[in-house]
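Encode chain A's predicted structure.
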Amino acid sequence: MKTTTFNQLIQSTQYEEAISTFLEEYNQIKKAATLSSFRRWMNTFANEGVLKEYLKVIDTAIMGKLATVLVKTNFKHLKTPMMTIWYCEELVSEHKLIEAEQSLKELLKLELTDEEEEKLFFVLADTLMNMQRFAEAKTYMDKCAEKTKAPMNTRWGYYYLQKGDWDRAIEFLEQGKLDKRDGVFAYSLLIQHYGIYGQYKKAHSLLEEGLTLHPNYPKLLVEKVRLFYQLKQWPQMRIAIAAINQLTPYNDYKGLFEDYMAESYYYEQDLSKLTRFLAEHPHLSKQSSFKEFSGTMNLPVKMLTYKPVVQKYNFCVPASLEMLLSQFNHFIHQDVIADSIFSVSGTKLSKAIEYLEEQGYACQFFYGDVDCFSSLIDMQVGVILNVDYPMSSHVQVLVGYDDNLRVLHVQDPNFREYHQIHYADLKKEYGNNQVLALAIVPSADRTKFNSLDRQQHEVVSKMLSLAELEDDSLTSVDEQFVNKNLDQLLVAAYTLRYIPKLVSQEILEKAISTVSQQLANNEYSRLIIAHAYCQSKQLAQALLYIEKEFSKRNKSTHWFLKGRIYYEQNEYVLAIEAFKEALQYEPEDHMIWSYLALSFSYLGDNETALYHSKVSLDINEEDTFALVNYGVILHDSNAFEDARAIFHQLLKTNKQDAYFWYERARCDHELGRSHFAMKGFQVAIFLERDVPFPYRELANIYEHIDEDEKRAEKVLLDGLIYTKNANVLLNELGDLYERAQRYEEARTYLLRAIDSNSSDVFPWLSLGSVLKSEGKYVELFEFMKERERDFETNSEFLVNGGQLLWDTAIFVEDKTAYFELALDFMEKGILHASYHLDDCIEMYVEAIEDTAFYRRGIAFLEERCTSSTTENSFYYICYIGCLYKGNGLFQKAKQFFEQALTIKKDPVPYYQLGEIALKFEDYKEAETYYQKVLTLDPSHEQALLDLASIASILEDRASERNYLLKAFYSNPFGVKVEDLVGVIDHKVDLEKLLDFLNGLMRKHDKVFILDSIAYVYGKLGDLEKEEEYLNEALLTSPHQPQLLYHRAKLWMKQGNNKQAKAALLLLIEEHVDDRDLYKLLVEVAGNTRSVLKLESYYNKLKLEKAERSLAFMFTAAAYEKVASQEGNSPEQLSELKGFFKRLTNFTKITAHAGVIIGFYETAIKLDRKNVRAVMWLADFYVQADLSSDAVKVLEKAYSHNANVDIAYRLAALYVEEMANVKLSKQYRYLTKAKELLEFCLTEHEDPEYMNLLAYVLFEREDLLEAEVMYHRCLLIEPTIDKGYYNLARLYLQMEKFLDAEKASKAAIELEPNNEDNYNQLGLIFHRQGQTDQALAAINKAIELNPDDLFCLYNRACFLVALGRMREAAQQLEHVFALDDDGYFIELAEADKEMLPLKRTGYFPMSV
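Encoded structure for chain A:
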């Protein structure tokens, strides 16, 4: 193998020598003529370097088929990146573009060499170009340009040729001719381009120039043959063919050249040579244009003179018209024609006719046959042939006929050369529309149409006009026309293709009958019938027509229709599978990509939906359907500003489109621009009064934003009139009446909705909600059980119904039974969820995560995980982790989140892992996880806020500010501006924030922006400006609580404390649970030294006792916070994301504490059921180092309210305080704790209660009872905190060493990084005399935590037991050196295990 020679020869343009050298070797293989010898030769390529050189010479020799075999054979064992790229090139040539793209994008994840990256980027760009995805392709072209050292002119020329920007392409290719590497390809592309466009002189000149620089380059020689063929220079062509075949006898063009040779003899009228040639090549008489050759050359032949043109993408009509007009010496470029007739994704023939008539031509439709076509060609009539496919159409130009060959000559605008249609095949090729054609002549020659049937033209024209109606309705005249002409195939077929939704069922069935009979149930007929049934929502019928297999040419349509049917059936998973199959065959169809995007969107996977929607727009950025879908998906992804921009742009050219007004208004509503949203919905209603959704949205604004229930009611009632009682409005009105507590009216409208559509789940659910609101709980449960039988597989009903039952269960006596019924509903709903599975699981998890049912949830989700797809398993695993995390089992939760990340790198598990790290105050690890979240989702608001919180704790004020600003700029509504300006100290940052807010004035709720600007001016110290902007906001919304709060705050800053206090008290009366109000009120009261008067103020407010209790509780918490700040710097006072600092600096009771305690005690007296007040007061005492008072508070509260939470907290406090009380009191505490925990267990079988009770029993030395309780606990929750650890301790004390060892190993399996578990295992081994194993265990513990003195001390003990006295002494010295309070010195002095060390004299007494 002389591969170096190949490379050198090709680089020096010695192509003939390179090919000759290769053929010396290859001829031997061909000579052997056995499959085994060929296989042996293919297996000689040891590495990709050798194969690369062979592929280069084989490509030069235009032997692509051999290259394909070599690549595919070697790809099986040479799995290198470059080999994959070559394989993908072959896939591209076979139009397997999706597979190629996926494989190439996998390579992007690998570390590659520069050469591999350059090749990868270009091949990926080429793959995308073939799918018409030029925007994405350009990104990889740019990457390729960055990597390569060679000029990119030829590659850019190729890119712009593919894109249809021919002028720019030619500029690059002209420069590319000089490129050393790609110059010859530039020549080849230029020659092809000029040859395709009929500029033969220019092409020939370039050919000669190219062959001078690149002598005998085969691809240029092929272009030479083609030029001679197009110019009909037959002798020169045959010489050129002979030259190529001599140079490279196994080239891929031999079959084409044989066709050319036969044609040359035919057109030279050399019958003897033609006859001889056909005899030598018998396949030509079976497959080529000569298959019906009559053997004579005397019959009529006619060929029109025209300029051949190859179309730009989707320009088949403009390109065909350019060719046809050239027959009349009228030359108009396809781009110019397209400017007048092309629209978005194609050209309507009606528009093309209008254009032609403007240009002075007459047009007439007709159904053609061979005689008709021949006659028209003889009269120089231009003829456009219409080719109908199931979902699209195409046009070609009839350019001649030949009775000797019995063929019509047809020029397809996709190809550079015309092709032949045999007379016998005419119906087969064009019969789907009765061989529909359009005759075109200059207006002065209109008489040439006399032989045509004018009635055919009228029928076709009318049918095409109806096809353009889209979703409009048919008039009675139109319907009569269709019905009258349904016996005509074209009318029937176009009824099915274009207007199936607009005709009656009777007409539809007649059309189906005509098409089935006249097309003998062929693939085209079956597909358009399925399409018609799909459009008319007869989905089961539609599926029947596409059950059978289809040929490759129709597979894309088959799968697309299947996807549409599944999509309409809400079977989105099946729809996605079908659309993906369709893309395998037609990846350049933007409609398939757009439907695929919608399907993912309905499944809740908006990230994937957005990607596919962008692909759709990359292919066709002007298609309204694709743009609308993109806008809707952006909206559902909460990208409201971007979505609004899409619909705003669409409205510029479609101001009468109600749907665009509606969607833009939805975006305005989400952006807080209620006024604009209101206007948008009103315009949508005005334009289309019979569409229900704008009424619903407008009513929502009136009810929830303006708080105008009557106006909302009127809108819905008006909507019912105009929409003829639309179900969605009946249901909405029912819900409105329920919220207004007008239950009978609610029931009336909901029952009307059910009568209208009993299969709609939402009126049924709303009826259930009405029963709940009426307090008819037993009736509700019975009602839902009955409905379950009707909707037993409906996920929406089951999940939402389960949620309703769950929310109601708290009001009934037998709560557990009803909770379990609710969970039954939700679990069945999850089982039957075909989309939005993550939302269903989230509802389920949110319901149970803080309850004893969370274990049931984990068991259910784990079971589902084992029988689900990988994608669904991701959701199940994540939510299992959430349940463990929500119940404090953080290590277990962490394992599940890490497992989820092995399936998919997603923000959710990374964020949850960050929260776990934050919980354990591992700020570095938390920050790492949050940064990974931001890598995947740069605008993840909560991750930014958490990072700000971490920065605040670490006193990194600059980072805190930056993260908060990023969060605010990402979502201005997600961060309180009051908090934001609190951490901004630099004037320049505040001014930048002002600019940003002013820029939002037109895009967001004006009131919100004005209020925010006011806060910024407040921070800048400009109180006048703050007041000015705040007052402007109040003019618009004088009762908005946030504004009234801000005004009170401003009054305080201005010294108007009395006004501020009065305003805050009024706000508390309306919003008793708003904690910010109390914080400010305490500050105001502090300024006026009137904190103690707050009690009398509260007593004057119109508050119920329970509400007043909340007011005192929140005041105590707010005052506690203010008091705690006395010892803290401002930098330590961040309260973001729950970092609420309680009393950390109080070392003794103070006057402040007396006030705080007083407020808490008042809150408790006012409402004994206010458990939070009890807990917060107990916490206050504990943090103030007054645990005995905390015990008293809890004991007293429990005596008034036997609440489980109080009981558990008190029991836990008894256990915590054991070390701080006398021995006699310890046992009393344990006994009380035991009683309390037994009470808790009578209420709930919670393993947390069991775990603590087992510990209490253990401490009481009720060892057998403790053992039973630990087993009971661990059976329910094996991962309970310290469960197996304490069980191991228990067994160790009971001297059940094997059981202790087993329990300890179980603890290690659950928490492999906890040193206490290994320390415990070491002690168990030590007690059994297995000291070597004990030492190994303790060494592992020390490895995990080298500073744990207990582990270090135990290691010394184990070393003593092993007789390793020197090591033991050194270990003990290390312990003593770190023992600040002398605990371990005293322990060692009294420890009997140290006696051997003392006897040997190694005991470190001097330390």
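The first helix runs from residue 3 to 11.
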